[in-house]
């Protein structure tokens, strides 16, 4: 069906009332399965105006259900956690229901779980059609098909503020075992959520089939070619002595084994120094998601994420199944920023800011080390991400490390990693550092001026030799990383004071870019203010339409020691406290208003003229209100005739 763009809760409630009336909007095309579900809901005498779902199991009843569905939970929960890690902070919860519509498990942030709990979409609640009418979980169970239910399609009004995608989970005979559901606020509706759920369910069903095969069949039958080649990861089956019984093509590819070469023992790929992996493959233990180093067929060291599962029969381990994920691919596909920052998303039109952006664009096309200089809060981290996303490494990983936020004892292990036993509390099997994790991608070292001198020498060696040695290790690990550094200190002065190495300064500052502070780009303050008001107003569900001229006057005259970060925080505070649709002077913190005395308000020495800011405000409001001059005049608190005169003065044509 065509989903109508709805911007507020009241609109959604009104739309729900309309589509469930006798004369719904003729422009909406309701799918047959939704209409059929509404008819079934009526026949079940479901009250569409109930405030919440009252069919909730007791704690004891829920625990019994969980025991009855333990195998299903063991198969599905790891996938739910993977989905949540990928969609974290997206507003969606992941839920698992059994074949009767009882919610067995929900994963989400506290905020997301609070949203779903409003209508009692909680663990232990029964969300069948007989109880709650049309909803993703109940309707999937009724028609046995993956579906998406949006807002007003829910039969009960208490659920109409959500959007849900769900798919049935089947056993090998096609019987429904449960339902996997992705639920969030209707504003977060996305065309790919149903596809994500369906892919996850297919993976779960494949996993269930493999698990059943592993438990029921001998090792030989478990490793049949059809099963092995259906797995996208590298899959290897070995016996108790490490002899390779079967491996799929993917395993051969990632280990670099030529198609015409035969290999006999998996231990040939395990470095002799890697006692941890050797111990695992002889101790009847399982591991999941461990970072390991293995040798390829050509003898080069490569990083993997490895799972090991013992194959047991009658309490005796007959061998092991090894699953290998290339760490490089896992990080590239999973570790991504929530928002993709590009040069197009950077806001500013002042000459010195545009110059910095143009320099960064040119630098993004090279592989040289970049040094971003600027005060705290000017957006050095945004520049770093934009440079990464504009270069040839854009599809690879981007890692950031704040050298000033970690104790000096931790910076070394964070950067270079460590081997097992390197220090008390070191993780079993060791841990890769940021240089290894960012291989083929970009490493952003923020506050580089805070790095201790002894670590500066280690960093210089890595930059020159392009290899790292983990703490407690002896192996040289090659890395191909683009380095971007940032500092709010004067590194030349730091060198004079012997706090920063001169050779490192020349190494990291191959391309130096100065990002101007906000007080040197006052032309951009109206643009930034409008952007923050628009984005934060939507975030906090508030409609802020204007900034009082005296507030903008203060914004332009304030020196902004915290730069863009400070401006953003001041506007966020004002929006949270605003009762109307304007940002007024009483909403500003005293520190801001007191910093701009009445004597220097409207004094424009060495800064843009007041006329230039007024012109920028008029142009910004014309864009915001789609050239509606009545709305622009209202926002500026002037008459339409006055607006026309000022547009004529500034040669603004619509």
What structural class do you assign from the helix and strand content?
alpha/beta
Average the pLDDT over all residues and give the rounded result: 84
The largest sheet is: 5 strands, antiparallel
Low-pLDDT regions: 598-608
CATH domain class name of the largest domain? Alpha Beta
CATH architecture assignment of the largest domain:
2-Layer Sandwich
User: How much of the sequence is in beta strands?
Assistant: 15-25%
Radius of gyration, taken over Cα atoms and rounded to an integer in Å: 30 Å
**Number of separate helices:** 27
Helix content: 40-55%
Overall shape: it is flat
Neighbour order of strands in the largest sheet: 2-1-5-4-3
Count of discrete domains: 4
CATH superfamily of the largest domain: GAF domain
- For the termini, the CA-CA separation is 38 Å
How many beta-strand elements?
19
CATH topology name of the largest domain, in short, is Beta-Lactamase
């Amino acid at each position: 069906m065509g989903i109508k763009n709805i911007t507020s809760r009241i609109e959604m409630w009104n739309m729900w009332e309309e589509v469930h009336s006798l004369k719904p909007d003729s422009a909406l095309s309701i799918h047959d399965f939704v209409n059929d579900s509404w008819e079934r809901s009526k026949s079940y005498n479901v009250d569409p105006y109930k405030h919440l779902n009252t069919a909730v199991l007791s704690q004891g009843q829920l625990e019994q259900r969980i025991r009855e569905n333990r195998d299903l939970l063991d198969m599905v929960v790891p996938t739910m956690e993977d989905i949540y890690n990928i969609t974290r902070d997206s507003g969606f919860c992941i839920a698992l229901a059994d074949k009767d519509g009882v919610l067995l498990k929900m994963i989400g942030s506290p905020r997301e779980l609070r949203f779903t709990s409003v209508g009692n979409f909680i663990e232990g609640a029964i969300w069948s059609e007989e109880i709650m009418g049309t909803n993703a979980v109940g309707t999937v169970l009724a028609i046995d098909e993956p579906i998406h239910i949006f807002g007003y399609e829910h039969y009960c009004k208490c659920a109409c503020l959500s959007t849900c995608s769900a798919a049935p989970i089947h056993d090998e005979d096609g019987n429904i075992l449960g339902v996997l559901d992705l639920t969030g606020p209707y504003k977060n509706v996305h065309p790919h959520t149903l596809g994500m759920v369906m892919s996850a369910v297919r993976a779960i069903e494949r996993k269930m089939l493999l698990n059943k095969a592993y438990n029921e069949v001998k090792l030989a039958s478990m490793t049949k070619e059809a099963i092995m080649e259906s797995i996208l990861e590298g899959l290897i089956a070995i016996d108790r002595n490490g002899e390779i019984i079967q491996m799929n093509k993917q395993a051969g590819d990632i280990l670099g084994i030529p198609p015409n070469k035969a290999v006999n023992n998996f231990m040939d790929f395990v470095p002799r120094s890697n006692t941890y992996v050797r111990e695992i493959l002889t101790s009847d233990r399982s591991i999941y998601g461990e970072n390991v180093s293995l040798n390829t067929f050509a003898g080069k060291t490569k990083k993997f994420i490895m799972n090991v599962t013992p194959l047991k029969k009658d309490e005796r381990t007959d061998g092991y199944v090894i699953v290998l994920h290339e760490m490089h691919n896992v990080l590239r596909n999973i570790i991504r920023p929530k928002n993709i920052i590009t040069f197009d998303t950077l806001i500013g039109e002042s000459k010195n800011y545009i110059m910095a952006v143009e320099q960064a664009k040119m630098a993004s096309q090279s592989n040289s080390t970049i040094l971003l200089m600027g005060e705290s809060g000017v957006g050095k981290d945004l520049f770093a991400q934009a440079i990464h996303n504009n270069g040839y490494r854009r599809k690879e990983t981007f890692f950031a490390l704040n050298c000033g936020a970690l104790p000096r004892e931790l910076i070394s292990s964070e950067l270079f990693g460590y081997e097992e036993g390197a220090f008390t509390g070191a993780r079993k099997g060791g841990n890769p550092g940021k240089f290894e994790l960012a291989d083929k991608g970009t490493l952003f070292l923020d506050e580089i001026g805070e790095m201790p001198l002894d670590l500066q020498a280690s960093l210089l060696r890595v930059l020159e030799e392009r290899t790292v040695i983990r703490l407690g290790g002896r192996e040289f690990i090659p890395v191909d990383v683009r380095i971007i550094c940032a500092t709010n200190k004067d590194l030349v002065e730091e060198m004079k004071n012997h706090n920063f190495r001169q050779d490192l300064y020349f190494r990291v500052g191959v391309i130096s870019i100065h990002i101007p502070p906000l007080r040197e780009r006052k032309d951009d303050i109206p643009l930034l203010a409008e952007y923050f008001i628009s984005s934060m107003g939507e975030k906090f569900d508030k409609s802020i339409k204007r900034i009082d001229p005296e507030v903008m006057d203060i914004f332009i005259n304030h020196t902004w020691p915290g730069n863009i970060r400070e401006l953003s925080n001041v506007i966020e505070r004002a929006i949270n406290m605003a009762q109307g649709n304007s940002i007024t002077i009483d909403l500003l913190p005293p520190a801001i208003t007191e910093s701009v005395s009445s004597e220097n308000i409207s004094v424009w020495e060495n800064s843009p003229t007041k006329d230039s800011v007024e012109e920028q405000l008029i142009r910004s409001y014309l864009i915001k209100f789609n050239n509606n001059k009545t709305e622009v005049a209202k926002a500026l608190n002037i008459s339409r005739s006055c607006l026309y005169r000022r547009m004529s003065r500034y040669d603004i044509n619509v």
